[in-house]
């Protein structure tokens, strides 16, 4: 009789632990489903500068593409937490003419500095926009309206930026 009660007790313990294990497994899959159910929006290379435009991932890739497609490269240096960068980004993204013209460029926006000193001819500030032609020459002659920050643009400078983009494309035809 003693063996029988031990046996039934043993079977009861096994049954309980199996039930608990199943319950824990159910909870676990439910939790993982809940956390994976909310898709994180992918951080696109545009970073909000124009989602329909094609952006390159690295400076090296951008130079390669510029050289091989014979398109000028436009590099936008900016920071996510900089109010000036945010304001320029908004103006850039909302300006249809700028967005249309941008399609003719190899595009790169950087939230970090490159080691290429040519990309900071007059210092490392943001936002700044530089153009590089397919011969990989930085167009230091295409500048904004500030003498102390030659490549800085503000939201109110969007038409100047547009004409500078046109200038970068025109120089391409006349010089190459």
Shape: rod-shaped
**How many helices does DSSP assign?**
5
Q: Could you say what the CATH topology of the domain at 59-169 is called?
A: Glutaredoxin
CATH architecture descriptor of the domain at 59-169: 3-Layer(aba) Sandwich
Report how far the terminal alpha carbons are from each other: 101 Å
CATH class of the domain at 59-169: Alpha Beta
Task: Please summarize what this structure is.
By secondary structure, the chain is mainly alpha-helical.
Report on the structure:
The protein is mostly helical and 176 residues long. The chain has a domain at 59-169: Glutaredoxin. The protein is built from five helices and three strands. The chain has a three-stranded mixed β-sheet. The chain is rod-shaped. GO terms for molecular function: dystroglycan binding.
Helices and strands, with pairings:
Blueprint: H1 2-37, H2 59-69, E1 73-77, H3 83-94, H4 96-102, E2 106-110, E3 128-132, H5 158-175
Parallel strand pairs: 1-2
Antiparallel strand pairs: 1-3
GO molecular function: dystroglycan binding
Signal peptide: 1-21
Protein name: Anterior gradient protein 2
């Amino acid at each position: 009789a003693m063996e029988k009660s031990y046996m039934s007790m043993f079977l009861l313990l096994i049954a309980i632990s199996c039930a608990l294990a199943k319950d824990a497994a159910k909870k676990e899959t439910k939790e993982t489903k809940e956390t994976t159910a909310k898709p994180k929006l992918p951080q696109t290379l545009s970073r909000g500068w124009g989602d329909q435009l094609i952006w390159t991932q690295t400076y090296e890739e951008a130079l390669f593409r510029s050289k091989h497609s014979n398109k000028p490269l436009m590099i936008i240096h900016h920071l996510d937490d900089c109010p000036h960068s945010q304001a320029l980004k908004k103006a850039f993204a909302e300006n249809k003419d700028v967005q249309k013209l941008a399609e003719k460029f190899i595009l790169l926006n950087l939230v970090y500095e490159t080691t290429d000193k040519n990309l900071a001819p007059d210092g490392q500030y943001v936002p700044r926009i530089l153009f590089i032609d397919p011969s990989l020459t930085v167009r230091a002659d295409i500048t904004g309206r500030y003498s102390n920050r030659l490549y800085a643009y503000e939201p109110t400078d969007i038409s100047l930026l547009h004409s500078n983009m046109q200038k970068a494309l025109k120089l391409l035809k006349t010089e190459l």
